Structure formats: structure tokens, C-alpha cells
Amino acid sequence: MTGYSFSTPVWDGGQWTVPEVAGVTAAARIVNGPEDQPRNAPGQWDRIDWRAQEEQVRRLRQRIFTAAQEQDWPKVRNLQKLMLRSRANTLVSVRQVTQRNAGRGTAGIDGEVALTPEARTDVAVRVHQSRSSWHPRAVRRVYIPKASNRAKLRPLGIPVLIDRCHQARVKNALEPEWEARFEPRSYGFRPGRGCQDAIAAICNVCAGPLAQRVWALDADLAAAFDRIDHDHLLASLGSFPARDLIRGWLKAGVFEAGKGFAPTVEGTPQGGVISPCLLNVALHGLEEAAGVRHKTSGIHAGETVTGSPVAVRYADDVVVLCHSQEQAGQVKARLAGWLAPRGLAFNEDKTKIVHLGEGFDFLGFNVRRYHRKLLIKPSKAAVKRLRERLAAQTRRLRGLNAVAVITALSPVIRGSGRPTTGRWCHQRSSARWTAMHGSCSISGQDGVTGTSRGTGSSPGTSASSISSGTTTGYSETAIAAATWSSSPGPASNGTCRSRARHPPMTPPWPATGPGGARRRNPRWTGTPCACCPGRPDCARSAETACCPPSSHPSLLSNGSGGGCTSPAGR
Hints:
The chain is an alpha+beta fold.
């Protein structure tokens, strides 16, 4: 009947009675999974098709980005509303916060964490049910040492777990819109961009003996996260659907042990998921305020106008490259006036105007011109921090075997804390390049790191660190992408498998002589290979018959490794 529930009285034997509901329980909180399984089956979180959920979120983000590029704002708002109520967005956000982020074990003021599949399932259900009725909670204040000066402390605000999941949801709706609007030389906390991109932008402007912008305004904003003006930030968001929720996070307040609760009248908590995105929104327009002008038509559209300064920003660190010291001073005055309504100001102790002949430190690098030649190298402070980190790590590893020590120290020495998958990298200088992925290691022309053919690893490197896919050496430019066999074993050592069975044979480097680059090593002959009959230039000899590294894009034919071994060679 219409409107019936378990508490509705029914007529039973001449009297009204309420049905027994003690054995009736609420439906199990199920997120996703096979339909032929019981609704309370264990392991629901692990049965989710994460590739399908992430693809739905990616597709929605792409649609928001495209609509924002076309400035179709009604469509942007409708797609953002669709993202905010998307079940896939909730699942991906909860997974990112509770399973992938480094701070997944850090709790807010409620002490809640979700480290088991059952707890994550429960959190996902609660987040999705409260997507339109959630009220933000206060953040927990903690302090961590600053990277530049360990004696000083940086305040962090840790939101509760549900707040972090909602912030990840809102970020997926807000970020694509602003990615279509952000300035071209803004690199901090943006998808697909990093410190190396900012350094490369400086190199492109200042490199060469004829570089014109030889003065730099090295600026740093004082406590940018803690001083953002709320009203100006909310006005910048416009009619964003989750604007009220963002206002709640900004006004939620701070709880600090021993001091109690304190309201927040400015700033955004430096520890929230959405805080970096809000900082970029608040600082949008800095290039225009600095006087940067771009060409709008012709084949050079998008390039900087001659005589205009160039601003490179990474979060709250800014470098403005100018033609003269006077121009740098004018830019600083204009930026100071532009930052004031946003509640921000320069840190005068760290802000300076320098000539590139003196050099400056930016993002852990030292940028300096030596006799009209630009050199970018790690700063002294960064090298000191790395040495201290290695010393502390080595002291903690005393008493362990060599494999454990190498496994722990290799990511630190190589300069990458996480694996780099599917990319070949090299330095801009022609000294050497190295790529390691899966169980295959191929070294460059100088042979700084040799390769052991028996294990597929370089001397002094553990097999576990190689199979993790970490790129060796300092990488700046990606040449090409490839997929390698990652399972170690006798049959896969030194074995590379491209995405296509036979990739294009044209090398990406120019020919250096009459025979081109492939004539540099006489070991490669034109004998057809047993694993690819009919294709010349594929075997190094008739006995081994296998594809050389030169048949793969971006591989040098130095014979140090690689090649797909034929059945005869195995």
C-alpha cells in the first residue's frame, strides 16, 4: 500500500498491532559490487571497479574544463553540480583521502581515521549521504618544523576525515574550471605541473648570451595561507555551487590543545585538501598585475611581448624577470598594491631585487649567470638538507644488511621519493642519460652506471629498487614513453616490450654523418630478426637475432642492454 512502513499499525485478529521489527535491520551500507553477492558481503571496497570510477570523474573534469574554455558558464555550473552529486566522485575522493594520501593516518579533532576497507566503505556512505547537508567542523592545530629553518614552526590545520573527503569532492568540481583560467606560468599545486617546470620556464627566458631579462625580483609572500581575505576569495569564486560549503570551511575555526577554540577571520587552513587550490584562485591575476603582456594574434600568439617582464610563480613563491633594476622596482610597487586587497604582503626579509650575475635561490635551485652563461644547480641549502637527511637515515639503518640500506637510500640519492613510471628522461647536457623501468636498465653513452646483465640491475642497486620503476639520474625532459616487463626472472632480465609490437624505426635524433645515428655502432647489422621476419635492421647478429634498442624510439644503440630476446637466444 502507498506510504506503508515497518511502523505502520496493521489489523490483526480484531486489534491494531505494530509489526515486529526487531529482526529487520537497515540495509547494509553497500557502495558498489557484483549484484549476485549478498548486500552485506565482506570486502565490498575491494570489489569496486576503480578504473571505471576514475574514468567517470576524469570525463566530467574534462567536460568542465572544455566548457570553461568556451566560457559557457551555465554549462560549467550544471556540470559542476553533476560532479558534486556524482557517486563516482565520492568514491574516488574517499579513496584518495583514506587510502592514497600520506596523511591518511592523521585524525582531526574527532580522532577518526579509516584504515580498513570496512571503515572506508562506511565513510563513503556517510559522505555521499551528507553531500548537501554537511556542516564543516573546526580544524586541529598542529605545528611542524619549516624546511628552510628547522628552528621555526609552521602551523597546520588538520580537518576531520569527513571534511577532507568533502573537500576532495569539491576540488574535483572547482579545479577544472580554474585550470582553464589560470595563467600560463603558474606551476604550484596544479595537476601535471611541478618545480622542474618552473625552473625550465626561467631557463627558457634567461638562457643564452643575448638574454635581455637579467634582473630578477625574487619575492616571497608572508604567511600566504594564513592571511587570505575571505570576502575577496569568495567573490572570486562567483556562483560556484559549493560556495557556501567553502565559506563554512574558511569560517570553521581552529582548536588547539591547551588553548581551546578560536574563530578564523582570515586565511585558509594549511593542511586542507582544497587549500592549495584556493590559494591559486586568490593569486590569479598576478602576472597581469606585474605588467606581463602576451601577443594575441599571429603565429607568435601567446609569447611574451618584447619589453614586458616575465613572472614565474610556484604557489606563494614568485620570480619576476625584468630588463632593468628600475623595472623590477616598479613591478614590486605594483604587486604590493595588488596584494593588499587580498590580505597579502611581501616578506621583506626574503624579497629582494638581484642581478642574475649575483644569482638567487628558487625552489631549491640556484639560478645564476657566469660570464653570460646561465647555470642552474642545486642550492647550498638544499644540498645541506639532503646531506642531513642522508646522515639521519644512515644512522637509523645501522645494523641492517646492505639490501635494506640500499633500498632505503636509493630514492633519496636519486632525488625521487616515488617511482617514475613509463618515461625516459635525460639531462639537457650531453653528459649522459639513464632510464630504468621494471627489470630493464639501459644506460647512456658515458657509462657512469654500469648494468649487470645477469640481474638486470646496476652495481650497488638492489633488485627491489629497480623493479619499483624509479628513474635514475636527475631528469628534466621526457623523451618518450614505453611499457616494460616488470616481473623479474631469467626470461625477463634485460627485456623491453613496447606498447606496439614493432614501434617506428625512425630515431628522434638528427643524423650526425653520412650513415646517420644508426651507423655509430657497427654491431647492428641489417640481418632480419627471427622474432620479426621481413624487417631489416633488426638484429645485431645472425646468431642472437633480436630487436636492438635502436628499434625503439629514444633508445641509443650502445649495446648495453635492452632488446627483445628471440626464442633462439633464450
